TrEMBL record:
Protein name in UniProt: TonB-dependent receptor
Region (Disordered) location: 309-333
PANTHER family according to UniProt: PLUG DOMAIN-CONTAINING PROTEIN, TONB-DEPENDENT RECEPTOR-LIKE BETA-BARREL DOMAIN-CONTAINING PROTEIN
Domain TonB-dependent receptor-like beta-barrel as annotated: residue spans: 405-837
Keyword match Signal: yes
Basic and acidic residues composition-biased segments: 323-333
Pfam families attached to this UniProt entry: Plug, TonB_dep_Rec_b-barrel
Record's keyword terms, sorted: Cell outer membrane, Membrane, Receptor, Signal, TonB box, Transmembrane, Transmembrane beta strand, Transport
Residue span, TonB-dependent receptor plug domain: 51-149
Protein family per UniProt: Belongs to the TonB-dependent receptor family.
Keyword Transmembrane: yes
Organism: Rhizorhabdus histidinilytica
Length: 871
């Protein structure tokens, strides 16, 4: 099916929807997407700070499959996708690890072992009342959040209109690339009881299961090469056959007691678990290494678009010459979970109000995986770069009898995070100065204990021909497969490794002569990635909200003291002695005064102007602070050489500190209508980046590395981010007849940033897209509702390299989705959804050259049909 056919089909679907709607009730029923939009607009309108909000509909459902994809539709929000699903969120060009993440105003932490960037695909949006993206913080909010603070607000029984409500949703889908049937479902029960409905209870659960295939191509290490038509070549070509199974389980609960207007007590909790099982066959062909390019074996054809690399194939466990072929098989299980519980409440005593909350959060990650690698020399290779998704292939592919076992690794990573936090606020009513005026003071304490432990045991091949083996010897080869990184252009993956056979063979022969434990590497891997971090934050603040007619002024000051105790591990080898594991301890502390001033001007009931100065911080990632380092390596193509990567932490890193300026203008011109424009600037000190560069022919710890990728986090001097964002939303209820059901939503953001690197170069911030924009056409009239949504996340830096041509980037990501629903009765709605209609891949490239591709990963289209019920 062609793209034009699909788009025409979607357009026809919408026109058919409009015609069907003419047969229904002519009145607009505010439900579904319109209910979401109107709730979100009202919440934005009356907030003190600067925020954008995604709200649930009238049955408590947010529109997308996870929280990252929910907030992607808001202005200034860019999302990084992983395997076709939104995961990390950048706000206003600021990387995701500098956001604040909270649930009901309490820091949620992060199950990922080494970063502060919460993977928002863990959490389903179906059990939340709303998601708030606060872009200009007030002093009663945590100081972490240079881009913004993403606050997840859970449901309570008081969020529903009816005294007792049961809602449920179920759907089943179809996936284009593997014909699998993903399923999703959620349900919630909410009730208020007591003589005055003073008690409320809400329980909800969600489940999704998606098994799917993705195909990708991933060349490595582009660099300038004389005579190449693209100005350079990668060292290799890699392509994969991925099979993934993703499962999410979520639950929320809330018990509320409101004995009167002046008092309330609550107990709330949220649990979410994300599991992923990944099977990956990866084909790799090293055809353009420096050694090959500089040898007589390498030759371009005229024009430099194609060429040939000659070589001799190996036989059995022997060695050949020239290009090298590898086959990897990885089987990985990943489980991440978030569990947060809180007890709190509020009490009012005349003009004084007391708010309090005590919370406990436990996050964890478990990630075991296995990886097997076989290699061969296939002989002569031909390559062709006439297509951006290029090709390189041996004239005669290796047979299973040529594929030599080279390495087996067994990894087991574990991370745990425990957070205790308490918060108390006192608010004094100053309504005598103006309705809504108050003085507020408060304090908070957070204690976080985070530890990460990683093992990665490594076995290599036997020391002689008798103890070495190939895929053919023990029936370890599997059936060939095809990979489609680009539709209609298959890449053959053969021979492959049979998972069941290699697992059984490994279990029967480990340890033994076929698998030789690399003790040094295994000890290195079991030591240098581990760390324990204790982080305590003590905070206090004071703020006022002064309503002076049409002008509201909100000054404030927050103080935070951060104390860190960090333990990493290193390997010490005394002269003539055995290597021992030694802890490496570090302490750090710093103080931050975070002033703010917000001004809200309302010249009329429909217009709001906001001006803000705020200061915020961004703490370093946990792994960046670890005083230890990590070295990973494997045998290189040339005898006696290695290929590897080495990374170091930096316990002396300073936190980011940002002074932020904001100005917005908002016009609420009709019910469900909004036009807003905002400008912002961030002046950031001590930005942290990971310097990555590649060394060749370097010796470390007595080993000679043909290639050694090196990285270390460093503080740069400063960075600046400026931008403008806009949003327009209108429901065309004033139009006659069928047209009155139409509506449109538009968002756009332009961002520019400058990051000064220690080597004197200028760069943008990682994850900062210059352009973000989206458009949605929606329709609701009578029983029928539909929408078509397009969103573009622009190019962004992944990580700076040691030199400009090693910089890595995300390419534009353009998604087109559609959905339609029909209300059958007051209680039942059926619907259909289509995701990624244009079969858009995720793409990455190097050196600002989109033809220096380092990833092109394809997921295909997904379609769902489902039913929602409410009683």
């Amino acid at each position: 099916m062609t793209r034009s056919t699909l788009l025409a089909g979607v357009a026809l679907l919408c026109l058919s929807s409009a015609a069907l709607a003419a047969e229904g009730d002519g009145d607009i029923v505010v439900s579904g997407q319109r209910a979401q939009q109107e709730r979100a607009i009202e919440a934005k309108r009356f907030t003190i700070g600067i925020a954008d909000i995604a709200a649930s509909d009238e049955i408590g459902r947010l529109p997308d499959r996870n929280v990252a994809e929910v907030v992607e539709r808001l202005p200034g929000v860019g999302v990084t996708y992983d395997q076709g699903e939104g995961r990390y969120v950048a706000v206003r060009g600021v990387p995701s690890d500098l956001n604040g993440y909270t649930v009901n105003g309490i820091e949620i932490g992060n199950p990922d072992g080494q970063t502060r960037a919460l993977p928002l695909d863990i959490i389903s949006g179906q059990l939340l009342n709303r998601v708030e993206v606060n872009k200009a913080r007030t002093p009663d909010m945590d100081g972490q959040g240079i881009g913004g603070t993403i606050n997840l607000v859970t449901q309570t029984a008081f969020d529903f209109r009816d005294r007792f409500t049961v809602v449920a949703n179920g759907q089943v889908g179809y996936q284009e690339l593997n014909d699998k049937r993903p399923i999703r479902g959620d349900a919630a029960v909410a009730g208020r009881f007591g003589s005055d409905e003073q008690f409320g209870i809400t329980l909800g659960g969600s489940y999704s299961d998606r098994t799917y295939t993705s195909y990708g191509i991933y060349p490595d290490d582009w660099r300038p090469v004389a005579g190449a038509a693209r100005g350079g070549l990668p060292t290799n070509i890699k392509y994969t056959d991925y099979s993934l199974k993703r499962e999410r389980i979520g639950a929320t609960g809330s018990l509320d007691w409101r004995p009167g207007d002046d008092h309330q007590v609550y107990v709330r909790g949220i649990y979410s678990k994300f599991t992923e099982d990944e099977y990956r066959q990866r084909y790799r062909l090293d055809f353009a290494t420096d050694a090959l390019i500089n040898s007589p074996a390498f030759a371009f054809h005229p024009g430099g678009v194609s060429g040939t690399v000659s070589g001799t194939p190996n036989a059995g466990v022997g060695s050949g010459t020239g290009p090298e072929r590898r086959q990897d098989l990885r089987q990985e299980h990943k489980a991440k979970s978030v569990l947060a519980g809180m007890i709190g409440g509020s009490s009012r005593f005349d003009a004084l109000k007391l708010d309090y909350v005590l919370a406990r959060v436990h996050n964890e990650v478990r990630e075991p995986n296995q990886l097997w690698q076989f290699r061969c020399n296939p002989g002569t290779v031909d390559f062709d770069f006439s297509d951006t998704v290029f090709s390189a292939a041996p004239r005669n592919e290796c047979s299973p009898s040529q594929m030599n076992f080279r390495q087996y690794t067994e990894q087991n990573e574990r991370g745990d995070e425990d957070i205790w936090q308490g918060k108390v606020d006192l608010t004094y009513d100053l309504s005598s100065l103006g309705q809504g005026s108050f003085l507020k003071v408060g304090g908070k304490y957070r204690a976080t204990d985070k530890d990460f432990d990683s093992r990665n045991d490594t076995w290599t091949r036997g020391g002689n021909a008798a103890s070495r083996f190939t895929l053919a010897q023990f029936g370890l080869a599997g059936d060939p497969v095809l990979s489609y990184p680009k539709a209609g252009k298959p890449y053959g993956v053969a021979p492959v490794i049979d998972l069941d056979a290699i697992r059984a063979f490994t279990a029967a022969n480990l340890p033994g002569p076929y698998f030789v434990l690399d003790s040094a590497t295994s000890l290195n891997n079991a030591t240098l990635n581990d760390f324990v971090v204790d982080e305590d934050v003590t905070a206090g603040y004071v703020m006022a909200n002064l309503v002076l007619g049409k002008v509201t002024v909100t000054p404030g000051l927050r103080y935070e003291r951060t104390k860190l105790r960090i333990t990493g591990f290193r390997l010490d080898t005394p002269a003539g002695g055995a290597t021992v594991v030694a802890p490496s301890n570090s302490r750090n502390s710093y103080d931050d005064w975070l002033p703010s001033l917000l001004v809200r001007v309302t010249p009329s009931d429909d217009t709001v102007f906001r001006f803000a100065y705020t200061r915020s911080i961004g703490r370093p990632n946990y792994s960046q602070l670890s005083p230890s380092g990590a070295l990973n390596y494997e045998a290189g193509a040339a005898p006696g050489t290695f290929e590897g990567s080495i990374s170091f932490g930096n316990p002396d890193l300073k936190p980011y500190r940002s002074d932020n300026l904001d100005a917005t203008a908002e016009w609420y011109f009709a019910k469900g209508g909004l036009l807003s424009v905002g400008v912002f600037a961030k002046f950031i000190k001590n930005p942290i980046f990971t310097q990555t560069f590649t060394q060749t022919d370097v010796t470390v710890d007595g080993r000679t590395y043909a290639i050694l990728d090196t990285s270390q986090p460093l503080n740069a001097d400063r960075g600046d981010i400026i931008g403008i964002e806009g949003q327009f939303q209108q429901q065309f209820t004033f139009l006659p007849g069928l047209l009155s059901g139409l509506g449109v939503s538009l968002t756009g953001t332009y961002t520019s940033s400058t990051l000064k690197l220690p080597d004197g170069r200028s760069s943008t911030f990682p994850q900062q897209s210059r352009y973000l924009y989206g458009a949605e056409l929606f329709y609701q009239k009578g029983p029928l509702e539909g929408s078509i949504a397009y969103h573009n996340t622009g190019k962004s830096l992944l990580a700076p390299g040691g030199v400009a041509y090693q910089d890595q980037y995300n390419n534009d990501l353009r998604r087109l989705d559609a959905k339609i629903s029909v209300t059958i009765t007051d209680n039942i709605r059926v619907y259909a959804e289509a995701q990624n209609l244009t079969d858009e891949p995720t793409r990455q490239y190097q050196d600002k050259r989109t033809d220096w591709i380092i990833q092109n990963e394809r997921y295909g289209r997904t379609f769902y049909g489902g039913v929602s019920v409410k009683f």
